[in-house]
Specification:
With 265 residues, the chain is α/β, with parallel strands linked by helices. Helix content is 34%, strand content 15%. The chain has nine helices and eight strands. The chain has an eight-stranded mixed β-sheet, with helices on both faces. Helix 2 crosses helix 3. The termini are far apart. 52% of the residues are buried.
Length: 265
């Protein structure tokens, strides 16, 4: 039988080494994982999970991804944030949580994992809605981000609203559509926030059924015209969930892109 691509979402992963809080809410936390081996302190890798910003999806489904990155020698933080359907989630709490978490995590992680995490701006690895959040942070607070690996990101909120991705996910995040809340889209939509000066690589599978690859093609082309330091890696035959699955055939390609971003800063 073919393997269900969604199996990674419920696959068990080792427990994190530490959990730190960047705010008072129970979801304003991050799980930390020590890098394998020994060596100097390295910039943190912050994983921003997807799930269309909705409350029913949390950071736990990125456990296999985070554990694999730690095994490859990266200090990793799985950032949680308040989500649509939760008190304080949606607009603007989801966005402000991620801005705050990304800014504070290098210091929090360096204190919790002594000698293993440098204070350099982290590389963000965001999948799906988490890819949107990574692009948003890089565009809004570029000094806090060392690089972005956006995996099948929801890079164009206006287009995602028009396509009704995940049955109204963007409207649930921002409270409605672009006609109702143009100011919110102007502040939250990566398509409207270019150029993004932080070095960014978008990786997207050609067979993605959750977030169409055309959105990344159009976004990267537009971002490049405005002077963004951005490129697109399109993976033929890959669907949405293989990008966060260390057991997937495309995993070595994902890891190679992260390595290039991480080693450059």
């Amino acid at each position: 039988m073919p393997v269900d691509p969604r199996a990674v979402l419920t696959r068990p992963a080792p427990e994190p080494d530490r959990t730190v809080a960047y705010g008072d809410h129970p979801d304003q936390v991050a799980d930390l994982r020590l890098p394998a081996g020994t060596g100097p302190a390295r910039p943190l890798v912050v994983v921003l999970h997807g799930g269309f910003w909705r409350a029913e999806y949390d950071r736990r489904h990125t456990g296999p991804l985070a554990a694999a990155l730690a095994a490859d020698g990266y200090p990793v933080a799985q950032l949680e944030y308040r989500r649509s359907g939760q008190p304080g989630g949606g607009w603007p709490g989801t966005l402000t949580d991620v801005l705050t978490g990304v800014a504070e995590l290098p210091v929090l992680a360096a204190e919790a994992l002594p000698g293993r995490v440098s204070l350099a701006p982290p590389v963000l690895v965001g999948h799906s809605a988490g890819g949107h959040l990574a692009l948003y942070v890089a565009a809004t607070a570029p000094a806090t981000v060392g690089g972005v690996l956006a995996l099948a990101p929801v890079a164009d909120l206006g287009e995602a609203y028009r396509r009704d991705l995940d049955s109204g996910a963007v409207a649930a995040l921002l409270g409605g559509g672009p006609a109702q809340f143009p100011d919110r889209y102007a502040r939250a939509d990566p398509r409207m926030l270019v150029p993004i000066r932080t070095r960014t690589v978008v990786v997207h599978g050609s067979d993605d059924r959750q977030v169409p690859v055309e959105m990344s093609r159009d976004f990267v082309a537009e971002a490049r015209v405005t002077g963004s330091d951005i490129s697109l890696v399109e993976l033929p035959g890959c669907e949405h969930f293989g990008l966060i699955d260390p057991e997937a055939v495309v995993w070595p390609q994902v890891l190679a892109v992260l390595r290039s971003l991480h080693d450059d800063h």
